[in-house]
């Protein structure tokens, strides 16, 4: 790959996060009159929205690797990521290329894959993203990047202002970006639980949720306010058949990574363990009721522990109005 000409970009993995980021990247490439984004996915039809924007579908990983100099990856977990990278390696065509992984995995997985790829003269950049699918669609994610500095310089123009509102440069060790992401997930899980308790206390004591939410926004900032709104709006428990903004199962996976790291270091994360237990209770509730729940559904568990129903008034009103329309 020439250090002067722009890289030919590719994308593998078109889940809700991957598709959103890939679409924003393709829009940017079109605006800048750069080569279109090549993409591949296990179910290639998921890339139809990307194709409509000018993206170029590839039938398999080999075709994707041959067509691109820099390839982004967005998959669900460590096992899938490892399998995908092994498929990339099996093409024997990675020399001089850059792989950019946006997946949240254990730092040890990242370190292992970086070593494997380096042995094939391929640069590996860890670029975990912070934010749910709506934030990804808006191009407002936060991204932490770590890896070879030369590769990051090539990658940088395709991050901030394209798929991200800001970029944190972590250094040259890819695993450190995942350690940062895992720590962030622990903070987010704790904040969800804390705000859930605050709203339950407010409801039980007669303090209006809108008043508490005004305080949260004014005193604790936009991130806390947005978390609060995902509780009070009822989005923590989507309508039956509707996909959540941020799947509870992925949150359980993400927090378990942080707890695993803590155990390895001999650290007890009591808030993390409390959050994990509540998320598992929420999953059991969702499985029993046949509903896919959002990562913020710990709110329902905290409500039940306080003698309230899992569903708040926003959920009841929304689901009730839907039933009336059906009738």
From TrEMBL:
The active site is at residue 181. This is Uncharacterized protein. Belongs to the HIBADH-related family. NP60 subfamily. One of its GO terms (molecular function) is oxidoreductase activity. It comes from the Eukaryota. It comes from Paraphaeosphaeria minitans. Keywords: NAD, Oxidoreductase. Residues 180-287 form the 3-hydroxyisobutyrate dehydrogenase-like NAD-binding domain. InterPro entries: 6-PGluconate_DH-like_C_sf, 6PGD_dom2, 6PGDH_NADP-bd, HIBADH-like_NADP-bd, HIBADH-related, HIBADH-related_NP60_sf, NAD(P)-bd_dom_sf. Residues 10-164 form the 6-phosphogluconate dehydrogenase NADP-binding domain. The keyword Translocase does not apply. The keyword NAD applies. PANTHER family: 6-PHOSPHOGLUCONATE DEHYDROGENASE NADP-BINDING DOMAIN-CONTAINING PROTEIN-RELATED (PTHR43580:SF8), OXIDOREDUCTASE GLYR1-RELATED (PTHR43580).
